[in-house]
Design goal:
Elements lengths: L5 H5 L2 E5 L3 E2 L4 E7 L13 E4 L3 E6 L12 E4 L3 E6 L9 E11 L7 E9 L26 E12 L4 E6 L1 H7 L9 E5 L6 E4 L14 E7 L7 E2 L3 E4 L7 E3 L6 E6 L13 E2 L5 H9 L3 E8 L4 E2 L5 E8 L8 E5 L5 E2 L5 E2 L1 E3 H4 L16 E6 L4 E7 L4 E3 L6 E3 L4 E5 L8 E8 L10 E2 L8 E6 L6 E2 H4 L16 E5 L6 E7 L2 E4 L6 E2 L4 E6 L8 E2 L7
Parallel strand pairs: 3-4
Antiparallel strand pairs: 1-16, 2-15, 3-14, 5-7, 6-13, 7-12, 8-11, 8-14, 9-10, 9-12, 16-17, 18-19, 18-20, 20-21, 20-22, 22-32, 23-31, 24-25, 26-30, 27-28, 27-31, 28-29, 33-41, 34-40, 35-39, 36-37, 36-40, 37-38
Length: about 550
Amino acid sequence: MNRLLKSACVAACCLAALLAARLDAAILTGVFYTAAQPPTGIPPADFMQRISMWDSTLHADFPDNAEGSSELLWLSTNANLIADCRDMFDTAREVMSAKLHLYNVAGGDQATVRWATYIVTSDWSEFEATWSNRHAVTPWQTAGGDIAPAPEAGGVVMCTDEQYHDFDVTPLLSYYATNTESCAGLLFTTEDGNGGEPFYSSADAAGYGPEQQPYFTLVFDDGQLTDAVVMAFSIILSNDYVTPVLTWTNAVAVDVLVCTNNAYGAPGNEWFVRAGNVTSTFADALAFESPAAYYRLVSRPYGRYTTTYDVGKFTVNVRQGSGVSSRENWISCPFDLVDAWGGTVQSKSFDEMMLEMCLTDDVQIYRQDYIQSQNPIGGSTWTARRTFGGWNYDDIAAVTWDRSKMYRVTVSRYHDGADRQMTFVGRVPDRASTDVASIRKSNGMTTRENWVGYPYPCPASFDTAGIASVLTGEPATYNQDYVQSQFPLGYSSYTAKRLPDGWTVDGPSATNFYAGHGYRIFINKAHAGVATNWYCPSPY
C-alpha cells in the first residue's frame, strides 16, 4: 500500500487512457438480464435481451459443495465467484464496453473489496462445479478454478449498503467475444482480508425480485460506418504542481477542444476553446491558466465528437498549517473516477490519487498531517496519517478515496507555507446523480453527521441540487437539521439550517455547492428513521 520513495509520487500516473477513440463508428448499447423481466432502473439501451446465465460460488472452506442453485454468490479471500455469459456475443460486432452489475445484500462484512477477474479456461457445470471439481467427477487443474493469467480486469467496490455494484470487465469481454472457443466464463477473486460479501445470483427459484438479479450492459460497435482510430490520446496526471498533459497523434485529422473556464458549462460563455491540431504544449499552456480544464476530441470537419464524454481536471488549493494551529480542508472529487481504460470506478486508493503531494511526510505522530473520512457515509470515522513515504491507518477504507464522500484533510501547524495543490482528473458527469449518497438519519439519541461530496464541477444552490429532500424542516432551532461547509476551501465554516420552507444562514455562501468542496450534513436526534437517498439533478 505504501510508496517507498517520494520520487515515485512525482512520476506521471496515467489516470484516463482513451486509447482507440472512435472517429466515426456508430455505437449500439445492449442490456442483458437474467430475470423474467428486466431489473428496474437499468440504464437505457437500444435493445435488451434475456440470457441464460450460469453463476456459482467456489468455496475453499467447502471444497465439495456445489452452490449453483443458491440464491447468493459470495466473494471473499476463500470464495471465488464464477459466471458464464457466452450467450451475449455476436462475434461480428466488437465489444466497446462491458460491465457486470451485482446486487450486494446484507449479511457480509460491509467492507471495501478489491476484486480481480480472469477468463475461465476449462468447461464447467453450474450445478456441479465446486472448489475441487468443474464437473461431478472431473477436477479443476488448479483448485478454485482454471484461469488464464492474462488479460485481467479489476477494481474496488464499497459494499456498505444494499445496492448494485458495477464490475467493469471490458478488457476481458472484448477478448472473450472473439475467442469464445477458449473461454468458459469469468472468475472473480479478492485478496482483501474479510469474511466475504454476498450478491444475489441468477437462480430462478431465488426469493427476490428481478430488480435485484445480476445483469450485464455491453456497448457494441455496430460496424455500420468505417472506423478510424486515434492511436495516442491520454491524460496524464503528475500532481506535482504541474498541469496534466494532453497528447495525441498529429497523423490523425482531429481537433482538440480545451475548456479554460472555472465553471463547467457556465451559461453565456464559450467554454470550449479550439486548440486545433497543435502540440500538447499549447493545450497545456491554456489549461495551466485555470484551475479547471476540460478536454474533448472532435473529428474534421468540426462537429462530430470522438469521445462519448468529456474528461476534466480540477485543482483545489489545500491550505497548510498556520504555524500556530492546524488547518482543516473539507474536500470532495467533482468527477466520476476513472481507471486506466477510461472506465468509471467508485473509488481509488490514496496512492493512485497521489494525495501525498498536498501533505508533508513526518515520522512524529504529533506533527503528522492526516485525512479523515466516514465508512459508510454517516458511519464510523477512519483516519490515515501521513508518515515518511507511506500511511498509517486504522482501516483499509481510510486510504481509499470514494467518489461520493467528503474527506477532511488536516495539515499540522508545523507544516506551514503556501497552499499546495490537489488535482482531480476524471469523467465529467453528464447525467443526474440518482445516488449521490445515502443520508443516514439519527438513532433517536444523538445527532448524526453525514460527510458527503458534491458530484459536479460547477456551482449550484442547495435548492437546485435538491439537498432539502434529505432533511426535515423545523421552525424550532433545537430540532433543526443543518449543513456546514467551508468558503473558501480551508477557511471559515458556514451553516445553513433547514426551516419548513427555507433556510437560515450565517453567510451568503452557506446555501451553495461548490466544485471540490465537501459538506457535513447534520441530522437532528429528533429525526430518526431509515436512510434517505440524495437525488441531485444535473446543473448543466
